[in-house]
Amino acid sequence: MKFFVDTAEIDAIAELNELGIVDGVTTNPSLIKKSGRDILEVTKEIADLVDGPVSAEVVATEAGAMIAEGRKLATIAENIAIKLPLTWDGLKACKALSAEGHMINVTLCFSANQALLAAKAGATFISPFIGRLDDINLDGMQLIADIRQIYDNYGFETEILAASIRTVNHVTEAARIGADIMTAPPEVIRKLAQHPLTDKGLEQFLKDAEAAGIKIV
């Protein structure tokens, strides 16, 4: 499973990237606003920092304007993935921009039928939103499983990018189902390394080492 970081905070991306676990970055207007940076400026900095795809989202809602914005975003760097909403106009823009050779991340996916349409329109990535479905008492993980089965049935190459991940359990379940990628905030990624038994075991090891007078250097 590939790990994308869902943030526009440069320091957080750089820290995780140093560990070699960052395969890409996803951003959106809300994250850009939170960073307080200009969208083109911060996206360029992120794209220069990581080797993998960096999703940059259009803000237009009409297909022609989406295509124009997408082309503009694609000039930022070679690893830009143009992020489009899963609307009818978004699908039109996806078809046009993917035909030009651009990477496309179709976002705000909440049904398997939407994911099927995105794959047929040439999406590089489909982003089903797990957490937002859970918020309204629907099973976000079932959506991931449904998309996985449909894509496997027909050999679609569109990668499943599990999004709106809020817990470490979301990561585990998405990996078990077979999502190609997960994108999560830095704090969720850091929590993947945490376990109370690890902390308890380390505490005991350190006590025993001190009692035995063990020093390595």
From TrEMBL:
Catalytic site = K83 (schiff-base intermediate with substrate)
Q: Which organism is it from?
A: Lutimaribacter saemankumensis
What does the record give as the function of this protein? Transaldolase is important for the balance of metabolites in the pentose-phosphate pathway.
Task: Give the protein's recorded name.
Answer: Probable transaldolase
Q: What class of enzyme is it?
A: transferase
Tell me the domain of life: Bacteria
One GO cellular component term of this record is:
cytoplasm
* A GO BP entry: ketone catabolic process
Q: What EC identifiers does the entry list?
A: 2.2.1.2
Task: Identify the main location.
Answer: cytoplasm
Q: In which pathway does it act?
A: Carbohydrate degradation; pentose phosphate pathway; D-glyceraldehyde 3-phosphate and beta-D-fructose 6-phosphate from D-ribose 5-phosphate and D-xylulose 5-phosphate (non-oxidative stage): step 2/3
Give the reactions, separated by semicolons, that this protein catalyses: D-sedoheptulose 7-phosphate + D-glyceraldehyde 3-phosphate = D-erythrose 4-phosphate + beta-D-fructose 6-phosphate
> Where found?
Cytoplasm
UniProt keywords, alphabetically: Cytoplasm, Pentose shunt, Schiff base, Transferase
Q: Which family does it belong to?
A: Belongs to the transaldolase family. Type 3B subfamily.
Which CDD domains does the protein's record reference?
Transaldolase_FSA
Database matches in Pfam families: TAL_FSA (PF00923)
